[in-house]
Design a protein that fits this description.
Layout: E1 2-5, E2 21-22, H1 24-27, H2 30-35, E3 37-41, E4 47-51, E5 62-69, E6 72-86, E7 92-94, E8 97-99, E9 105-108, E10 113-119, E11 122-130, E12 133-141, E13 147-156, E14 167-179, E15 193-196, E16 200-204, E17 212-215, E18 221-233, H3 235-239, E19 245-258, E20 262-269, H4 278-281, H5 298-303, H6 306-337, E21 361-362
Antiparallel strand pairs: 1-20, 2-10, 3-4, 3-21, 4-5, 5-6, 6-7, 6-14, 8-9, 10-11, 11-12, 12-13, 13-20, 14-19, 15-16, 16-17, 17-20, 18-19
Amino acid sequence: MIVEHDSDALNRPPTNAWNLYLGRETCGDVQAGLNHEWLVTNGLGGYAAGSIAGATTRSYHGLLVAALRPPVERVVLVTKIDEEVELPGGHQLKLGVNEYHDGTIDPQGYQYLESVSLEGDMLYFIYRLGDNLTLHKRVWMEYGQNTTYVQYTVHGTHEDEMNEAPLTLTLSPFCLSRDHHATTQGAADWHFLVENEGNLCRVRAFDGAPFSYLIAGPTAHFTATGVWYWKVLHRRDIERGLPGLEDVYQSGIFRTQVVPGERVTLVLSTEEKARSTKKMWYRPWHAASAAPGNSWPWRIAQQATCRDAILYALAWLLPLINSSLHVQSTRRMRMETGNCTCRPSGKRLSRATPGLRTGDVIV
């Protein structure tokens, strides 16, 4: 988690080029929330996806689904995060949602979900913690890297305005290590390998499995738990006649204190550099940089070095050049042969997997 002051206006209305917005009527209905899904991608074939309520309804859902051999070998490494907020008076609000094999939904965080929308190309959730207090959550991925950012901001004031004590934010990531088509059955004697470095942990399911890094800021503290959550239901897979029960592993929890106006970011990554290049990987992007028209790759270029900016720009422009050459070549072939059935499509080539376009966000 990275903590940084946020001077954004409180509860500003969502702005996005696609006018995608779901309000309290949908978000407060658990069935509607489970029926609406979102997806963001990284341009490599990796992605993050889930239901807006927070529960995983498909085996494909996960906050960090990494393409280990782009654009294939997609592996679910972090399936979701459950959030819990403790108010200064000690009252605890559980914001997560999980559905189990017998239909039990616990916790029931959808009760606090006010809205889901887009902010630029980031998913933007607002949770109501009190009459004048909200928690804002943003989810996005690093272009060209198997890295997901989950950022939290508290806005407003507590009911007791004289009480300036900070809130306590607890984040519980659930880890796996499997193909995104499969499911996992846990075992009481199976414990993931977790290296605890205080505000950073490195997790892998077993010897030889890929690593995932869960990275927080210096004010956060990681506590290992090693708990299996049994028989989580994937309702969409059940409907399709596929295996729909899975066990998920809570490797530990991050806990930090936060006051209104601060941003707290948790980084999920397979990249070794994520733990060492703090300037580029830790710095949370300001919301203004996510406005329409400031999307990939320019937002990344603002955070990277000049050399990295050039590399990102080339990675973005080369497919356009290739597409242009393809169209010209096809037209030339039609003129030379006179009977060629090929037609120039003008479709821009992409390094991403078909169906997962660079920067896609679906609600």
